[in-house]
Write a structure and sequence with these properties.
The complex is a heterodimer of chains A (351) and B (415). Chain A is an all-alpha fold and 351 residues long. Chain A is built from 13 helices and 2 strands, in the order αααααβααααβαααα. The two termini of chain A are 23 Å apart. The N terminus of chain A is likely disordered. The longest helix of chain A is centred in the N-terminal third of the chain and has 28 residues. Helix content of chain A is 67%, strand content 1%. With 415 residues, chain B is an alpha/beta fold. Helices cover 38% and strands 21% of the residues of chain B. In chain B, the strands form 3 sheets. In chain B, strands 2-3-1-4-5-6 form a 6-stranded mixed β-sheet. In chain B, a hairpin with a 5-residue loop joins strand 14 and strand 15. In chain B, helix 13 packs across helix 14. Classes of the chains: A mainly alpha (351), B alpha/beta (415). At the A-B interface, helix 1, helix 2, helix 5, helix 11 and helix 13 of A face helix 1, helix 2, strand 3, helix 3 and helix 4 of B.
Chain lengths: 351, 415
């Protein structure tokens, strides 16, 4: 990886905690105190939704950034987990929902999502590049059309509504503050988990496989197994994201994991940057801001609000055009600007 | 990492929502993306027309409209509503447009008791019939009410003894088919088959191939882009069956579409809350106001029912705001009681609300005709006055049918 942070710290000395850069502490402290000044909308919709989309996108970033596998089925994994929670748990569709308690339906959702992702992975790892994208997109659209037309289990177009999180520890988890911390906790948890796994033997082997599968195979690594395992691992952040998404909007329908959202997850990962697990969260935040406020920007500029999709598209285009590596790449470029030797144009190490 | 701090600064800039005491913030929700975009845009025209007629003032307060777009899915409707209610702090929300959105917003409105929701034009029955919300008002009739009288008309006058239905697969069209089936089956007709197609279907080839040919007529419950796509492909496939249109099948959005496909609709009977060429002076005045307000290339020849629906919702809000003098204190109690008791002298007939805050209004049976200038419009055949939500059926019997669905209700001659 080009980014030193993704390869483990190169500087020596100090405890693990001491090596965490100051920016992380600042960002962490800021995120912890957001509820003290932010409105419910900002906590619940802007940050809550960003964390959720970030997690789902993180699972794509893990597969694409470390494994070189662009899977478009991650939103589908999230959607499936949301559906399982709706079907096994409680919803307004009492004919289908089983009313099982949370300690059964949440593990069931995670398990089923993981099995599904493993099967998708097992199918997809036999392909490379554009073919991986196509086969996973096919899975995603098949899931979308299936849920839309299946009434016995998925309740067709309307899907399920009235799905609420369990009242665990006496907390109403749909309360904006509680939901904010819940989403924040899982976002940070999966961020750290992905960072950890990326530096573990499994993660390093995966990056080796991304760079040169034949050499890794010659070294005795089982390439297929590692790739499939990556899909299985990536299912979990996506599934947690999917469950939170279902609770946030209190409903799930085929549109939740439709073709649009599936592409959105890719867009989020790409605009954020695929080099580091923070990228998807940055991308998700930008996406949510654009999605929520572009119509207001247009109206403020005296243009017709109906064209807000144009602004979203232009925003994405600008980011991808100026920085193919996403916002993280843009940041790295700016940082490197003053470290570049003006004569040879290469990076120099300042001592 | 430093990106985070940068974002923090960015975030802080929009965290504080400013509120002006004088202006009244009103949220407007419409489908501005997806298959119903053209419908949503016309809905917004209806809303703007009503506001401009009121000089953008209501009860002495200036109105500030905050528009939020949806894509007809319940998710997007709730997200958009949450944005205008919780971020922009609107006191009143007008919308949404589509059936399943309405159900989602009814549920959301229960969590926001301090805001009044006035439905735009969404027409699912459940929205006000099952578990209604105290602060959700609907000044348009639902899909079943819009079908009132059509079943009897096509059986008795047109003589169609068997029909098959092809309709989009969601709550609004279920409700429309329910209204049709109750009248049609009671009159003696038989629905042999009900075909449901996903919303946003572009390729109807497999459906057209499977259409039954031993029925007297086909009922089409499609809307927007779906309706135009179906008509195109149906004509290319050489289809020539008698057609019966659902409410949004023969709406201005379809009748003013480009191409020849729409000509298949000439002579097709349908029903809905308006008939384009109705000679009522109130209606004619409304049509003229609509035509004068917007340049011809930015509107339909005549207001669609989306425009009428949003117009009525906005007019109702404005007239009640005037009556209470813009006073929305005490949980908007005075304003809401005014809405509940309002008899709205709407362009498409008088509208009043029932105990569930659901409209009781007038329904129009019409046929599509070609006007002198070559455009298509719906011509009034029959008026069905005072249509309530249970279509005149005893409420308990009506509730016994269950929530409208793919097979609900059964086609029986008596219930």
């Amino acid at each position: 990886m080009a980014d030193p942070a993704a390869n483990g710290n190169t500087d020596s000395g100090g405890s693990r905690i001491g090596r965490v850069p100051a920016g992380y502490w600042l960002a962490g402290a800021f995120l912890l105190v957001v509820p003290s000044f932010a409105s419910n909308f900002v906590m619940y919709q802007i940050f809550g939704w960003s964390f959720i989309l970030g997690m789902i996108s993180l699972s794509l970033m893990f597969l694409a950034g470390y494994g070189g596998m662009f899977s478009l089925a991650q939103m589908t994994v999230a959607g499936l987990a949301g559906y399982v929670v709706a079907i096994c748990g409680t919803s307004a569709i009492t004919d289908i929902s089983q009313n099982w308690p949370w300690y059964i339906n949440i593990p069931a959702a995670l398990l089923i999502a993981a099995i599904f992702a493993t099967i998708v992975g097992w199918l997809a790892v036999r392909t490379e590049g554009i073919y991986t994208i196509m086969i996973t997109l096919a899975v995603a659209s098949a899931f979308f059309y299936f849920t839309r037309q299946n009434y016995v289990l998925f309740n067709g177009f309307s899907g399920f509504n009235g799905i609420f999180p369990p009242q665990l520890f006496g907390v109403d988890w749909r309360n904006p503050i509680a939901f904010y911390y819940l989403a924040l906790f899982w976002a940070v948890f999966w961020y750290l988990a992905v960072l950890y796994v990326s530096r573990s033997p499994m993660g390093l082997a995966l990056q080796g496989i991304r760079d040169n599968p034949r050499r890794m195979a010659a070294l005795g690594f089982d390439v297929t197994l590692h790739r499939v395992a990556a899909y299985t691992f990536a299912a979990f952040p996506a599934a947690i994201g999917g469950i939170l998404l279902t609770w946030q909007s209190a409903q799930i329908s085929p549109g939740t994991a439709g073709i649009g959202p599936v592409i959105d997850i890719l867009v989020i990962a790409v605009i954020g940057g695929l080099r580091h697990p923070i990228g998807p969260f940055v991308g998700a935040f930008v996406y949510v801001i654009l999605k929520s406020f572009s119509i207001d920007i247009l109206v403020a500029l005296g243009m017709a609000g109906e064209r807000f999709q144009l602004l979203i598209g232009l925003g994405f285009l600008a980011i991808v055009f100026w920085s193919p590596d996403g916002l993280l790449g843009l940041w790295a470029k700016l940082r490197d600007l003053n470290r570049r030797d003006p004569l040879i144009g290469r990076l120099v190490r300042r001592l | 990492m430093k990106t985070r701090t940068l974002l923090a600064v960015l975030a802080a800039t929009f965290l504080t929502a400013t509120a002006h005491a004088q202006t009244l913030k009103v949220g407007a929700l419409a489908t501005l993306e997806g298959t119903y975009t053209a419908l949503g845009e016309d809905g917004m025209r209806g809303l703007r027309l009503a506001l401009s007629q009121a000089n953008n003032m209501a009860g002495g307060r200036e109105i500030e409209i905050i528009v939020a777009g949806t894509d007809a899915s319940p998710d997007s409707a709730v997200r958009a509503a949450r944005k205008v209610v919780e971020q922009d702090g609107v006191e009143l929300l007008i919308g949404p447009l589509s059936g399943s959105e309405g159900i989602a917003l009814r549920d959301y409105s229960k969590t926001q008791p301090h805001v009044t929701f006035i439905n735009g034009i969404s027409g699912a029955q459940e929205t006000t019939f099952v578990d209604p919300s105290e602060n959700f008002f609907r000044f348009n009739m639902d899909g079943a009410q819009w079908s009132a009288g059509l079943g009897e008309y096509i059986y008795n006058v047109k003589g169609y003894e068997t029909i098959a239905t092809i309709a989009e697969d969601y709550s609004f069209t279920y409700t429309q088919v329910l209204g049709l089936a109750l009248g049609y089956c009671a009159a003696g007709g038989e629905i042999t088959e009900r075909i449901w197609v996903p919303l946003g279907t572009k390729d109807f080839a497999s459906i057209i191939a499977a259409l039954p040919d031993d029925v007297d007529a086909l009922y089409l419950g499609l809307g927007g882009g779906d309706a135009v796509n179906f008509l195109n492909q149906y004509q290319q496939a050489g289809g020539d069956a008698q057609l019966v249109g659902g409410t949004i099948m023969v709406d201005g959005t379809v009748l003013s579409s480009k191409g020849d496909a729409k000509n298949a609709l000439i002579g097709v009977p349908s029903s809905g809350p308006q008939a384009d060429t109705w000679d009522d002076p109130n209606w004619q005045a409304f049509v003229k106001a609509y035509q004068d307000e917007f340049p011809p290339d930015q509107r339909f020849p005549s207001p669609s029912l989306m425009a009428t629906g949003y117009y009525n919702a906005t007019t109702a809000a404005v007239s009640c705001l005037n009556e209470v003098g813009g006073d929305l204190s005490d949980g908007q109690a005075a304003f809401r009681s005014c809405l509940s008791n309002l008899v709205l002298d709407a362009p498409n007939g008088e509208i009043k609300l029932d105990g569930n805050r659901q409209a009781i209004g007038t329904n129009f049976i019409s046929e599509v005709v070609e006007l002198e200038d070559g455009t298509l419009a719906t011509q009034l055949v029959k008026i069905v006055p005072n249509v309530n939500q249970t279509l005149g059926i005893d409420p308990e019997t009506f509730a016994g049918f269950g929530v409208p669905g793919r097979d609900v209700p059964e086609c029986k001659s008596s219930y």
